[in-house]
Amino acid sequence: MQNTLWILYILVFIIAAGAGLKVSFDPNGENVQHVIVSAWFYPSLIACFLIAFGFKKLQAKEDDKPEDHTTMQSSPDTYLNLIVITYPADGSVSQDIIEKIQSICLQMADERFAYIQKYGIQKFSEFFEHFSHGERYLNRSWSALVDNHHQESLESFQTSQKYFEHALEKYNLLK
Question: What's the pLDDT tens digit per position in 44-53?
Answer without folding.
Answer: 667 767 777 7
